[in-house]
Amino acid sequence: DAGVIQSPRHEVTEMGQEVTLRCKPISGHNSLFWYRQTMMRGLELLIYFNNNVPIDDSGMPEDRFSAKMPNASFSTLKIQPSEPRDSAVYFCASSSRVGNTIYFGEGSWLTVV
Amino acid sequence: RKEVEQDPGPFNVPEGATVAFNCTYSNSASQSFFWYRQDCRKEPKLLMSVYSSGNEDGRFTAQLNRASQYISLLIRDSKLSDSATYLCVVRINTDKLIFGTGTRLQVFP
User: Which residues in chain A come in under a pLDDT of 50?
Assistant: First the structure.
């Protein structure tokens, strides 16, 4: 069974460039989460969707970050313009129903230089 | 104050040892609790849920103390393969999972 699929797995970009991270949740799952992980702050919830609708984006650090979920099988997290402090691992996760176990993708390792 | 706090470790223990991790949470409205495991450069994966009465899964025992807002994980007979970071996780409402920063365990031969 395919798990949560994220792309790219690794990205190195220059400060000021736009970064787009992609996620395909597990088929049939209707909740999708974007997390960011750093050594200093651990795993932070950025935003989550239920049935493609953003429910809570209070974790999005600032206006440079945006997320969309145009359909049940695809979501993007965009950073524009990117900054070195955005360097982190960005995880996408999904669950079959609100309250159920969430499953993580392998993460997108972002380095902004 | 962080919503979920853990001792970062590392805990370095020999094979066969028993090791315990603790976690405290600040939101008394927290509804459910979990331990996740994260291997180096990998994604977090659910290890076990934590129930009010305490629960066991093989060598792993989890306990919850709601009055003290405290969660624990006990690992008996540690194996080399138990080496990982253990994340304490709290569900604040039906959707939102808050992760601790993790406790690193290293089991040596």
Answer: none
